[in-house]
């Protein structure tokens, strides 16, 4: 009879937490790693086996990952859920009002989640049994690498321009000021700056940038007040970093709220591909978002927000597996692995939110292609 050890639970739990948010497919790793190690690992951690205790373990890891995302984005979810409830209180004919940023973002997430939710309910078991084989997971991991590479290499001009605009907005509206009030990172003009030279004076921003800065600062203050905090004039250390993250999140949500509902559904539907072991949910969502003109940073944020309800629902719907016979005798191991999964997910999302502000998908594309290729060679030829 198959079992689950604390070592297996710890290793796989930590890998699950990290790979769930990195665009490298957690399900692909959950299938490949036990097969590559072999022995009892391949028996105990067989995702395609109908009565494997691994299924109960995966439930625990999904719930822990979703909780980690909720903890990191809790301020955002307070706003988004508030927007949803507000929209229900103001109906226009046969549909609720969708006027503010948070109301629109709430309904965007709902619409984007419907396609993958319906397909997952109907076909999740078939996908897992038919495509949950290690050799196929390796093949799909190669495909995932190609998707990430092509998504980055052939980004439309709108996405590249969006990156530039986001960078300019961050530099112009959120940068701290140095001596004399000049924003840090601003190149000094040759000669004395001033209106006569067509340059803003020291400490001054262009009128459009000044308006954006005032809007961002105002929304940051409102964001703090909405959750019972007050903005600080001189924050330091972790609090200063957190304030910057909140301000950037508000600006990102403002941009996301401007995309159409058609693009929202297309981006959300791309998550269906992640039912294939080896295809990353966050990866394909990011690539689709960039293909629809989003900046890399905004595409990543939208992917993380969309992942939260999907992962949580996948875990909650399978809770009977955890509480039923499949979880008997291994709940301690499940708890241990799930805690590590949650910690890994939290650290990963903190890293990735900042990573995608300036960096690309290329390293993940290379990793997926190489790891997938080596896995196929080993499992199909050597082993």
Per DSSP E runs of 2 or more residues, the count of β-strands stands at 2
Coarse morphology: globular
Helix content: over 70%
- Largest beta-sheet characterization: 2 strands, antiparallel
Structural class: mainly alpha
Radius of gyration: 23 Å
Helical element count?
16
Low-pLDDT ranges:
174-235
Measure the end-to-end span: 24 Å
**Relative strand content:** under 5%
Strand order of the largest sheet: 1-2
Overview features:
single chain; 383 residues; mainly alpha; two-stranded antiparallel sheet; 2 strands; globular
How would you describe the overall organization of this protein?
The protein has 383 residues and is mainly α. It has one domain (6-161, 255-382). The chain is built from 16 helices and 2 strands. The chain has helices at residues 6-19, 26-37, 40-44, 54-72, 74-88, 101-131, 134-153, 157-173, 207-226, 237-256, 261-269, 281-291, 296-317, 319-323, 331-358, 362-382; strands at 91-92, 95-96. Helix 5 (74-88) crosses helix 6, helix 6 (101-131) packs across helix 13 (296-317) and helix 7 (134-153) runs antiparallel to helix 16 (362-382). The radius of gyration is 23 Å and the shape is globular.
Sequence-ordered SSE layout with sheet pairings:
Layout (H helix, E strand, L loop, with lengths): L5 H14 L6 H12 L2 H5 L9 H19 L1 H15 L2 E2 L2 E2 L4 H31 L2 H20 L3 H17 L33 H20 L10 H20 L4 H9 L11 H11 L4 H22 L1 H5 L7 H28 L3 H21 L1
Antiparallel strand pairs: 1-2
Helix pairs in contact: 1-2, 1-4, 1-15, 2-7, 4-13, 4-15, 5-6, 6-11, 6-13, 7-12, 7-16, 9-10, 10-13, 11-12, 12-13, 13-15
């Amino acid at each position: 009879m198959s079992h689950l050890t604390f070592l297996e639970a710890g290793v796989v739990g930590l890998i699950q937490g990290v790979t769930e948010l990195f665009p490298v497919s957690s399900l692909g790793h959950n299938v490949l790693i036990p097969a590559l190690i072999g022995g009892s690992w391949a028996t105990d951690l067989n995702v395609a086996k109908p009565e494997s205790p691994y299924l109960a373990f995966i439930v625990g890891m999904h719930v822990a990952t979703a909780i980690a995302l909720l903890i990191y984005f809790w301020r955002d979810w307070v706003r988004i859920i508030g927007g949803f409830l507000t929209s229900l209180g103001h109906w226009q004919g046969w549909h609720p009002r969708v006027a503010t940023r948070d109301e629109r973002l709430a309904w965007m997430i709902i619409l984007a989640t419907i396609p993958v939710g319906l397909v997952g309910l109907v076909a999740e078991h078939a996908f897992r049994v038919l495509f949950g084989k290690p050799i196929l997971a390796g093949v799909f991991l190669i495909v995932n690498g190609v998707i990430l590479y092509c998504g980055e290499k052939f980004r439309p001009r709108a996405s590249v321009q969006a990156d530039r605009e986001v960078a300019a907005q961050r530099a112009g509206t959120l940068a701290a000021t140095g001596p004399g009030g000049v924003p840090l990172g601003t190149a000094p003009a040759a000669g004395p700056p001033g209106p006569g030279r067509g340059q803003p004076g020291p400490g001054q921003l262009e009128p459009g940038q000044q308006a954006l800065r005032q809007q961002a600062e105002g929304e940051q203050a409102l964001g703090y007040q909405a959750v019972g905090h007050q903005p600080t004039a001189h924050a330091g250390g972790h609090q200063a970093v957190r304030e910057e993250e909140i301000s950037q999140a508000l600006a990102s949500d403002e941009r996301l709220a401007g995309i159409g509902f058609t693009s929202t559904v297309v981006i959300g539907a791309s998550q269906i591909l992640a039912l294939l072991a080896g295809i990353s949910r966050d990866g394909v969502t990011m690539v689709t978002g960039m293909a629809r003109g989003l900046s890399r940073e905004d595409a990543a944020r939208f992917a993380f927000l969309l992942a939260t309800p999907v992962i949580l629902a996948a875990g909650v719907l399978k809770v009977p597996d955890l509480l039923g016979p499949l979880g008997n005798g291994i709940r301690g191991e499940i708890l241990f692995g799930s805690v590590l999964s949650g910690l890994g997910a939290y650290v990963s999302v903190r890293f990735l939110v900042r990573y995608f502000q300036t960096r690309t998908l290329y390293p993940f594309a290379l990793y997926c292609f190489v790891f997938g290729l080596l896995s196929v060679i080993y499992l199909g030829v050597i082993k």
